[in-house]
Design a protein that fits this description.
single chain, alpha/beta, Rossmann fold, 10 strands, 25% strand, globular
Length: 292
Amino acid sequence: MVTVPESQTVPVTLPGVNVDAVAERGRPLPARELREVVFDVQGLGVSYSGNMALQDVSLEVYRNFVTAFIGPSGCGKSTFIRCFNHMNALIPGARIHGRILYHEQDLYGTDVDPVEVRKRIGMVFQKPNPFPKSIYDNVAFGPRVLGMTDGLDERVERALHQAALWDEVKDRLKASALGLSGGQQQRLCIARCLAVEPEVILMDEPASALDPIATTRIEDLMHELKRDYTIIVVTHNMQQAARVADMTAFFSVTRGGEGQRTGILIEYDATDKIFTQPSDKRTEDYVTGRFG
C-alpha cells in the first residue's frame, strides 16, 4: 500500500458530502485494541479461470460496525463481499487465495459447512428479490428450511419489526410480497435475512435501485441494526458511505496486458479520515471526483 507523507493533513472537500455531518455521524470509534475482530482478512485474492479479479487484500472487520467498500466499477468490491459467505464458490472457475478468519476460524477450512456460514453471515442483494410467496412465507422461508420452526409467528414478527416493516404489513401478512413497493421489498429481504438470526449482514448496493426516500429508510435501518449486527456494505455512492459507515475501504484497479483488470485495496481507515484526511493520494483523487 502506497501512502503520502503524514505531513499532508489538509482536509479534502467532497462534492455533495456534508463533512460536518460525517464528523458528527455517531459516537467516537473505540480504540483499535478495544474492538472485537469478526473477520481477519489476510492476503486475500480471487481469480476466475486463472485471471486475478482481486489481489492481496488484508483488513479487519469489527463487531457492531458498519464497514463500507467503495471504489470505481470493476475494482472487486462485490467479488470481495461475496467471499465472506462462500458465494464465489457458486461461480464456475472461481478460486479463493489467502485466508479469511471468522472469529479466528478459517472460513475456508475443510471442516466448514457453507450452509452454516450463510446462516451466520446473511446477504442482501442489489435488487430486491422477494420470493413469489406471501409476506409471511418470505420471512418464514429460511427458518423453515433450517428447522427453526418453534415460535415461528413470533420470529417472523420480530424480524419484520427489526426491518422497520411490521407496522406497514402487519394487516396483510398473507398478501403477495410482490405487491410491496421497491423499498418495502428490500426491507422484506432484510427481514428474511434477520429471521435466521445471523451475526453479520452483507449488503451489496442495497439501495442503488431505490428512490431517495426509500434509500434514507435503508440507511436509517443500518444505523439501528448495527446495535445488534455487524454490517458490511458495498456502495458506489460515496455520500452514502460517508453517512452510514464507521470504517471505509477504498479499492481501485490495476491494469495488465490484454485488458486484464485486478482490484486492489488502496486504503482502509475510519470513515471520517477516508473522506476528510485520506493518507493516499489515490483515495483523495477518488473522493474529490478527480478520477473514478
